[in-house]
User: Which sequence fits this backbone?
């Protein structure tokens, strides 16, 4: 007879159960030890190279980083900064053209169109057979997109933000949501740059939903540069939302200073980290510099008022391709923005 008792006895069964428990605890312990080893040694860095065989640099350090390029007004050189910054990246990068009313980054990158996807928002439709004209929908809508005067409501689709609120409050379930196309999101590839651009349909004034659709295609494993629309209104806020760092592009003129100060106020409200790029240095005066100095705002780059830059721009040629001596300036800007924002915070 075995010391644990005869086979099938209570003692033998208990011994078997304890042995199984001990084995399972040992495997769990082994798995924990293995994971601890992995964490101590750190993630293996991938030895990746770009299309030209160049090392991908700090790709692992910047994955998922998002920087936005914005300005208080149009025509300050925001797109110039965005596309040249993307060009000098030595790793795959996403460039999001969020200026959906007038996307123009593609003019410089000349990428290959890979995808075009329609974007729609929900728009209400009222069933006259069910509606009794109670006006609940009209009272709820803050955008005055559905209006009732004790009658079946009138709809103004161009004002509708597609929130779905009116359908929810309708006591007679007379409202159904239908889709309304507002534009497209296009995906282009240009060397190591994946360009995502929104294009609003003519006559549509609903930029934020389309910008959100562009941003929904962000790849969390790839750093991204967002070219924001000009100004300080909703489309800009929608673009900046979630960015790790904002680059504000301005010109050294009184108008530039005025719009920069508005943009700085907006960024301060949002509590975001930012710095300034001064484009067309040499025109105007030094009040933008004084403003930055006074408020301790980092001056990230100064681009001179160089006729050759304007000529390259008018031909749709990238500044760093036409004038390679400027490449180092954008590489430095890249390092100060996309290259290290999270590291600086740590
Ligand atoms: S809430 Fe419904 S029932 Fe009332 S007016 Fe609007 S659609 Fe008609
Ligand atoms: S969906 Fe929202 S914005 Fe559009 S009509 Fe209804 S309540 Fe107004």
Assistant:
């Amino acid at each position: 007879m075995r010391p644990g008792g005869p086979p099938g006895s209570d003692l033998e069964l208990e011994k078997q159960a304890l042995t199984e428990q001990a084995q399972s605890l040992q495997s769990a312990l082994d798995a924990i030890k293995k994971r601890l080893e992995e964490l101590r040694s750190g993630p293996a860095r991938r030895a990746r190279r770009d299309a030209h065989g160049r090392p991908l640099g700090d790709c692992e350090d910047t994955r998922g980083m998002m920087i936005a390029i914005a300005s208080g007004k149009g025509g300050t050189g925001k797109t110039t900064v965005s596309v040249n910054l993307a060009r000098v990246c030595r790793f795959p990068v996403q460039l999001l053209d969020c200026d959906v009313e007038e996307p123009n980054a593609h003019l410089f990158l000349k990428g290959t169109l890979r995808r075009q996807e329609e974007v729609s928002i929900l728009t209400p439709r009222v069933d006259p057979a069910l509606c009794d004209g109670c006006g609940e929908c009209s009272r709820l809508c803050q955008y005055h997109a559905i209006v009732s005067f004790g009658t079946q409501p009138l709809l103004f689709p161009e004002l509708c933000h597609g929130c779905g609120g009116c359908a929810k409050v309708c006591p007679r379930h007379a409202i159904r949501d239908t889709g309304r196309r507002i534009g497209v999101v296009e995906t282009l590839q240009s060397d190591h740059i994946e360009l995502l651009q929104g294009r609003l349909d003519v006559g549509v004034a609903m930029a934020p939903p389309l910008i959100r659709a562009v941003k929904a295609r962000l790849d969390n494993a790839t750093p991204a540069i967002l070219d924001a629309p000009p100004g300080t209104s909703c489309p800009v806020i929608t673009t900046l939302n979630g960015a790790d760092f904002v680059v504000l592009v301005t010109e050294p003129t009184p108008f530039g200073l005025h719009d920069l100060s508005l943009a700085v106020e907006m960024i301060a409200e949002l509590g975001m980290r930012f710095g300034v790029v001064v484009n067309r240095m040499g025109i105007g005066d030094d009040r933008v510099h004084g403003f930055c100095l006074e408020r301790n705002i980092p001056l990230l780059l100064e681009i001179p008022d160089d006729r050759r830059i304007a000529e390259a721009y008018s031909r749709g040629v990238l500044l760093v391709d036409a004038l390679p001596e400027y490449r180092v300036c954008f590489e430095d800007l890249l390092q100060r923005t996309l290259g290290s924002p999270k590291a600086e915070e740590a």
About this structure: The pocket of iron/sulfur cluster (ligand 2) is lined by residues 124, 140-141, 143, 145-146, 160-166 (CB under 6 Å). Residues 130 and 174 are 5 Å apart (CA to CA). The domain at 62-120+182-341 is CATH 3.40.50.300 (Rossmann fold). The first helix runs from residue 10 to 41.
